[in-house]
Design brief:
Length: 453
Amino acid sequence: MGAFHAYDIRGIYNVDFDKDIVYKTGYFLPELLGTDKVLTGRDCRVSSPEIHDWLLKGITDAGADVYDIGLSTTPMVYFATANYGFKASVQITASHNPANYNGMKVSMENALPVGLDNGLGRIKEWIDEGRECIPAAHKGSVHEMDVRADYLEFLLRNKGDYSGLKIAFDLSNGMSSLFARQIFGDAPAYIFDEMDGRFPNHEPNPLVPENVKALKDLVRNTGADIGVIYDGDADRVMFVDEKSEFISPDLMIAVLGHWFLEKKGEKGIVLQDIRSSKAVGEYLTPMGAEMKTWKVGRAFAARKLREIDGVYGGELAGHYYFRDFFYSDSGLLASMLILNVVADMKKKGVSVSQLVSRIARYKNSGEINFRVEDKAGAMDAVRDFFISRETPSAMMDFDGYRVEFPEWWFNIRPSNTEPYLRFICEAVSDDLLEEKVNAAEGLLAEKFGAVRA
């Protein structure tokens, strides 16, 4: 079973992992993190109740107490972990994956992520070694804990005046349904706003264009100023402008600068992932941002933002991290802050598409997946091919390679879970972008038999 990944435990339930893996993970977790109290939450997937039962059985058999907050967004688990001082928590979710997937996101003290390199790998070793799970003489207890009121109160501190905005929401039948109407009211247009872990309308992944089509139609039909769509567990959020055009999520890192750097005057470090558009830093630096680039994924971003005490950060995948939210990510919080900016801009006569056009200065390929077995060799070959023809202006060698040239750049990085290389390229013109993408694709096909996934 291969459900242990860099950031979490995730896969098709009863294929990649089963109740035995869940039980043992629960059993070993208190020892791993040195605690006798574990916070738990879950999403609305059909398999979540069964996983919940076996997780709790494992934790209590180890002699630890469970504090269960029930149905929850993943950021609500982060909030509860840090706000109430828990040293361990588990959210049962598969985030944006299809309905037959599920998993567990594990956090430690201060809601810092536990990934394969700082804990999950050890649990996997203990399971693979067949280490026994002997029930404790004094089993732990399960305590139901309601944190919704406290979490909602925290979110509402950041609420602006949205009365002048027409907003369209797609809640993806996911966990944002817990709070969206309580935050934004009944005035916006909503679709797929009932929790349904079968995800009958579309998969809860806003990065797939097909899944955003209904929101685009809603924006068009209602004349909305902006469309907002969350993923399944509400840790990510993405946007559609008033013309029903999808906005690349990395560009919203720049939009958030108007809130933190301008309105609140919080000059400081802003974190972006290695795939982010060069335009983000060019837009934010004049506002007082010091840009830092780091690896992809919460397991890396949340820890790095805390380490450097960054004001906020974001990723191409639609995660946004905030110092004022325990250096963690929240789709609902991010959407509130971005809507605050959009509302202010509308008062100045600036539409969402006009605001984004001020930021986006380059042509971007989006992330392209290539199926290839020799990922390390292929990455090196692409890097060497381009730097042998041009002198780079900058180069980063973590999370694959990001190589920058005066008029274009690329990032090539391996998937942590699949035999894919992920390639993204950005250039000053469509012609230059096409030239570079074709060159990379031709090289990968010729030398490594790679094809687009």
